[in-house]
Amino acid sequence: MSSKILTCNQAHWTEFLSEFHFSITYLPGRLATLPDAFSCRKDIQPGRGEDFISKNPINYQKIIKQHEIHTTTFFAVKVDSFSNFIDSIQKKLWQNSQYRSILQDLGKGKSVQDYSLDSSLQLLLFKDWVVVPNDPTIRRRHDSPLAGHPGQEKTLKIFKSVMPD
Asked: What does each C-alpha distance from 89 to 23, 130, 131, 151 come to in angstroms?
């Protein structure tokens, strides 16, 4: 798929219509069942070997200028399976003395205030939220700009879709 250059009017409508879920397919006039206004206007359509900018230069302008583009540093992320990520969280929880004692108490059936144990994944929960240890490796995978923490609601949906009932 190639990038398209839009007129100001097309960009406006593209932005407005992006909130709706549908697709628009362009058909040239000879294939369209009913001709539309754009198919009938020869001054808008580029000819063979001609691009839109050369046909309509007054409608072309840079919306984002080069000096307005700010780059950020992205980190390469090794994407492992979900089970590997869960395993690494579990290992780090057991390596932390505070969490290890909580896990041991919960394993013995003792009640620990605000903590519980997820029965299916054996993850430590604090007020029904998964405890993610403060480990640089796990944090990089959890908070990576590329992987992106999708937010609490989407994270819960992801966990619920993977966890067996």
From this structure: 42, 10, 8, 19
Residue 16 within any structural domain of the chain: yes
Per-residue pLDDT of 29-87, as tens digits, reads 667 666 666 666 666 665 665 565 666 666 566 666 666 666 555 544 455 566 777 78
Question: pTM of the predicted model, to two decimals?
Answer: 0.39
β-bridge mates for residue 126, sequence order? 115, 129
Instruction: Determine the Cα–Cα distance for residues 21 and 120; give it in Å rounded to an integer.
Output: 36
β-bridge mates for residue 130, sequence order: 125
Total domains present in the chain: 2
Q: Which domain holds residue 28?
A: 8-67
**Phi-psi domain of 151 (left: phi exceeds 0; alpha: psi -120 through 50; beta: other):** left
